[in-house]
Fold this protein.
Amino acid sequence: NVQAFLHHEKKADVTVEQERSLRREIHRAIKKVGEDIGTYQFNTAISALMILSNKLGEYPSVETPVYEEGVRSLVQLLAPFAPHIASELWQLLGGEVDVHHTAWPVLDPDALVEDEVTIVVQVNGKKRSELRVPVAVTQDKAQMEKFALDQEAVQRHIEGKLLRKIIVVPGKLVNIVVADA
């Protein structure tokens, strides 16, 4: 990721949603690594760094401010775990002082807010579909039921069966319970 950033290897158009998604992942990593260091859960902190690194690797362009924020944050968050390589990477990024003398990346709580969530749709407890819905809709049971029942994959599994119950867990899943007619 640092090499791609330094040599401007990836240049493509970036959508607003891709930018927002990367920024959310950056701030998730800042939050997770900070919390995990405080509770001595280093393995999960490193896992968060790997997730951020993978997200940066998938990003279509290195010539955006959010990508630069991501690479710089990744190096700063890496510093407690791999101090020597983090110092080298920071220097390659143009850091004027050593990475260990820079301020910890600042968490932006607004960047963590999601506009949409993924809801799992089950039929008799088996996953049949996933759908992306606005966060505001997840609390509306009737709307969630409608979204779930409109899914083509769900329609195939409930066709010709007796609908017994629909269980909605707000923000997580919809389980449709059916029985043979």
